[in-house]
């Protein structure tokens, strides 16, 4: 899982920059803003795959992890991944010679697909 | 040439073939010889670089117009010629193309469509007086009015390079996540990133007020599919699945819920 690695690639730095921008935007976005609505939910009454992610990111950045998980477990996990990636890339830029190494095996792919489906079921069943 | 370490799976650029050490993990590996030179007479040989990657020789304007023309009219040829190790070139093409035309589009929309916006605002205002319509409508009107002021439009136009950078990376990350999920990532994130950058070419249409952005985004999705096929050397079906899965998955899940609800409803009716 954790392997020896050199300096982060330009893509790792670019993704970290995009992730930090996303987390910063989530921290300041007003949750009652009129543009924060899901057109899919408005049209069908059902949540989309990423419904609740804005709320989850917002609560996660503000340290309210329970509210983040309640809004969307997938969103909370993505926010955690973003935060870990940003911190890890900074550490690698400072000389940390290790990086996570994840191989997309068949089991991992099926687990990810099942997690996506479970998250959506959670959103549908959430009162 | 590009090589991938079999130990740490890091993709790196090297000038020579043969035995060497991975710059990331330091373990020894053998880089195979590159394929033979292409036959003479071929204009853009595979992975010999797009016009944008040769802009020092061609000049900025000529390189950009040739790349744009290839992306819009002969995308398969462009993606086949792209070198996936030229990250900064790809990123600069995407950010330049997207941000300039996005900014032009915003300014043109503000200047040309203000009359129609006023009409829409009056219409929304009339609707919002209806007690059945929520207060959200009024908030939307206020937000739209604030967003259409000249200082906001100019400010957003100046920030478009940052927005474009974030958009390119997020788009590449989501596309690559689905490529991994479906087992269609044969050449790693750099290949997906290259595709997502050159697929931004149709976003020049964002300079066209009103409908330009919609056409541009649809075209971007199509180009991404074509690009994934060429860059990852996967089948047409695999590429289409990777691009369309986020949308198709949605329809599938809704179908499952609808079917489930129908079964529950039928069982309840049968009991009564």
Could you list some keywords that capture this structure?
heterodimer; A: 127 residues; mainly alpha; 2 strands; B: 272 residues; 2 domains; two-stranded antiparallel sheet; 10 helices
Tell me about the largest β-sheet of chain B: 2 strands, antiparallel
Q: Give me the number of helical elements of chain A.
A: 6
The amount of helix of chain B comes to: 55-70%
Number of domains of chain B: 2
Question: How many whole angstroms does the radius of gyration of chain A measure?
Answer: 17 Å
Summed over residues and divided by their number, the pLDDT of chain A gives a mean of: 88
Instruction: Give the helices and strands of chain B as they follow along the chain.
Output: EEEEHHHHHHHHHH
Stretches of chain B where pLDDT falls below 50 for ≥5 residues? 37-42
Q: Gyration radius of chain B, to the nearest Å?
A: 24 Å
Q: Quickly give the structural class of chain B.
A: mainly alpha
Distance between the termini of chain B: 71 Å
Secondary structure: number of strands of chain A = 2
Fraction of residues in β-strands of chain B: 5-15%
Strand content of chain A: under 5%
- The ordered string of helix (H) and strand (E) elements of chain A is EHHHHHEH
Q: How many strands, which pairing sense, and closed or not: the largest β-sheet of chain A?
A: 2 strands, antiparallel
Shape of chain B: globular
Structural features, described:
The complex is a heterodimer of chains A (127) and B (272). By secondary structure, chain A is mainly α. Chain A has one domain (2-125). Chain A is built from 6 helices and 2 strands. Chain A has helices at 10-28, 39-44, 53-61, 65-71, 73-93, 106-125; strands at residues 2-4, 98-100. A two-stranded antiparallel ribbon of chain A has the order 1-2. Chain A is globular, with a radius of gyration of 17 Å. The model of chain A has no long low-confidence stretch (mean pLDDT 88). Chain B has 272 residues and is mainly α. Chain B has 2 domains: 1-37, no CATH class; 57-240, no CATH class. Chain B contains 10 helices and 4 strands; from the N terminus they run ββββαααααααααα. In chain B, strands 1-2 form a two-stranded antiparallel ribbon. In chain B, strands 3-4 form a two-stranded antiparallel sheet. In chain B, helix 4 (87-112) crosses helix 7, helix 4 runs parallel beside helix 8 (188-198) and helix 8 runs antiparallel to helix 9 (212-231). Chain B is globular and about 75 Å long. Classes of the chains: A mainly alpha (127), B mainly alpha (272). Chain A binds chain B through residues 3-6, 9-11, 14-15, 17-18, 21-22, 32-35, 37, 40, 44, 46, 48-49, 101, 103-104, 106, 109, 112-113, 116-117, 120, 124, and chain B through 7-10, 23-26, 87-88, 91, 136, 139-140, 143, 162, 165-166, 169-170, 173, 180-183, 185, 189-190, 193, 246, 249-250, 253-254, 257.
């Amino acid at each position: 899982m954790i392997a020896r690695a050199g300096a982060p690639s330009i893509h790792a730095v670019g993704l970290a920059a995009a992730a930090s921008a996303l987390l910063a935007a989530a921290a300041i976005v007003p949750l009652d803003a009129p543009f924060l609505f899901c057109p899919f939910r408005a049209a069908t009454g059902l949540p989309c795959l990423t419904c609740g992610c804005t709320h989850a990111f917002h609560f996660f950045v503000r340290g309210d992890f329970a509210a983040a998980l309640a809004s969307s477990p997938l969103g909370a996990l993505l926010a955690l991944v973003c935060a870990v990636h940003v911190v890890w890339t900074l550490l690698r830029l400072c000389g940390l010679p290790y990086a996570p190494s994840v191989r997309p095996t068949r089991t991992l792919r099926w687990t990810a697909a099942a997690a996506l489906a479970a998250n959506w079921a959670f959103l549908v069943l959430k009162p | 040439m590009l090589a991938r370490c079999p130990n740490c799976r890091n993709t790196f650029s090297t000038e020579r073939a043969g035995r060497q050490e991975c710059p990331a993990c330091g373990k020894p590996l053998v880089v195979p010889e590159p394929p033979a030179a292409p036959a003479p007479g071929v204009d853009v040989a595979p992975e010999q670089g797009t016009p944008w990657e040769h802009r020092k020789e061609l000049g900025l304007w000529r390189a950009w117009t040739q790349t744009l023309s290839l992306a819009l009219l002969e995308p398969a040829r462009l993606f086949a010629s792209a070198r996936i190790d030229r990250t900064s070139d790809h990123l600069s093409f995407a950010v330049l193309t997207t941000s300039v035309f996005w900014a032009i589009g915003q300014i043109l929309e503000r200047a040309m469509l203000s009359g129609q916006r006023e009409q829409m605002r009056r219409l929304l205002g009339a609707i919002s007086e209806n007690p059945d319509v929520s207060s959200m409508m009024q908030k939307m009107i206020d937000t739209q009015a604030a967003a259409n002021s000249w200082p906001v439009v100019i400010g957003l136009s100046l920030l478009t390079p940052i927005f474009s950078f974030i958009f390119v990376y997020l788009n590449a990350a989501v596309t690559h996540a689905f490529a991994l999920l479906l087992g269609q990532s044969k050449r790693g994130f750099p290949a997906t990133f290259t595709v997502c950058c050159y697929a931004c070419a149709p976003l020049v249409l964002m300079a066209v007020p009103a409908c330009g952005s919609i056409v541009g985004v649809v075209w971007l999705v199509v180009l991404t599919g074509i690009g994934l096929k060429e860059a990852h050397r996967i089948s047409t079906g695999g590429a289409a699945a990777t691009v369309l899965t986020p949308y198709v998955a949605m329809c599938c899940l809704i179908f499952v819920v609808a079917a489930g609800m129908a079964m529950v409803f039928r069982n309840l009716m049968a009991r009564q």
